């Protein structure tokens, strides 16, 4: 049996013609299937299952991991990816999202987009006749969260009941991490300064998901309280892409939320540190933590490739 038929045989699971805008549209069962596929692809990295398929990748923000893992992932599965920087395509000169969606759908098989407003991705998916994947927007970063959960599975085996703590800004990475960990039945704590909490609607929906799957979601302003007994501590930059002008002000507000050795003393002795990267050492995390023995950030970054391939295979086959 060649790699391609093995992949098809092993996974009679498909999200074909579906979009991945946020994990709110998915169930625990579907996510577990995707994670199994990602694990399988990590061991069986190449095939020609996506032969003849093309992914278009629209970027309105910078990227290292998302761009390269999607592009390399398509290649490893026999397909092809086209990098579309918004500055170089007509979107950057005002062509509508709807027209872009219709035209691209007639050339390619799926679209990945990294942008600002979530509504723009929704509009793109409404007008595209091919699957649309959210490669990060101001509200969500679903592909990142799948890699995060795969990493936690690899480190801890069972994830139900695990205490995972996100410290920092309550935006895109925090939202997707909260939703997906709640869906896996984990005990999720998000710790952020007042005024930087996660979106209320997303918290409400995450709590409902946690109730369904036996987990919990708590927003806790005190970082020491939040970290007590944590199995996983996760942080992200204090000023996200598009917020560069607020960086100075945010530095002051977020400093008490820095992940450093002192704070990690309150966590479990077996705590592992996660960061989506890119990181700013001595801001949201000290070098001693991110470059220390409890850090798993490069395993987590590598897993972006494996989950990207699972997502691509699931929406395209
Ligand atoms: N974590 C992440 O999405 O990294 P990039 O911005 O480099 O894609
Ligand atoms: N919150 C960060 C994540 C980068 C991967 C940002 O949006 O810039």
From TrEMBL:
Amino-acid positions noted as binding carbamoyl phosphate in the UniProt annotation, renumbered to this chain: 63-66, 90, 114, 141-144, 276-277, 304
Enzyme Commission code(s) on record: 2.1.3.3
Alphabetic keyword roster: Cytoplasm, Transferase
Enzyme class (EC, first level): transferase
Keyword Cytoplasm: yes
Subcellular location: Cytoplasm
List of residues binding L-ornithine: 172, 236, 240-241
Chain ranges of the Aspartate/ornithine carbamoyltransferase Asp/Orn-binding domain: 160-314
Similarity remark: Belongs to the aspartate/ornithine carbamoyltransferase superfamily. OTCase family.
Protein name according to UniProt: Ornithine carbamoyltransferase
Gene: argF
């Amino acid at each position: 049996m060649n790699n391609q038929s093995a992949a098809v045989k092993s996974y009679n699971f498909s999200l074909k013609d579906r979009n991945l805008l946020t994990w709110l549209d998915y169930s625990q069962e579907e996510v577990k299937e995707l994670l199994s596929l990602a694990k399988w692809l990590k061991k069986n990295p190449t095939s020609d299952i996506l032969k003849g398929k093309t992914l278009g990748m629209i970027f309105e923000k910078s990227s290292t991991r998302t761009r390269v893992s999607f592009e390399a992932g398509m290649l490893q599965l026999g397909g092809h990816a086209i990098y579309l920087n918004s500055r170089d395509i007509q979107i950057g000169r005002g062509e509508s999202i709807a027209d872009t969606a219709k035209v691209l759908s007639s050339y390619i098989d799926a679209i990945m987009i990294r942008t600002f407003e979530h509504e723009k991705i929704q509009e793109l998916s409404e007008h595209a006749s091919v699957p649309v994947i959210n490669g990060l927007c101001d509200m969500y970063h679903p592909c990142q969260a799948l890699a995060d959960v795969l990493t936690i599975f690899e480190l801890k085996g069972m994830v139900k009941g695990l205490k995972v703590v996100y410290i920092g800004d309550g935006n895109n990475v925090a939202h997707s991490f909260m939703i997906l960990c709640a869906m896996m039945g984990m005990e999720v704590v998000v710790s952020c300064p007042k005024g930087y909490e996660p979106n209320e609607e997303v918290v409400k929906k995450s709590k409902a998901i946690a109730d369904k799957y036996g987990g919990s979601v708590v927003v806790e302003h005190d970082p020491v309280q939040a970290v007590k007994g944590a199995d996983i501590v996760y942080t992200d930059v204090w000023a996200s892409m598009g917020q560069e002008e607020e960086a100075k002000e945010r530095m002051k507000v977020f400093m008490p939320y820095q992940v450093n050795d002192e704070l990690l003393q309150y966590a479990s002795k077996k705590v592992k540190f996660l960061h989506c990267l890119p990181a700013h050492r001595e801001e949201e995390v000290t070098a001693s933590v991110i470059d220390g023995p409890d850090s798993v950030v490069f395993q987590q970054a590598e897993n972006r490739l494996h989950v990207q391939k699972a997502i691509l295979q699931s929406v395209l086959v």
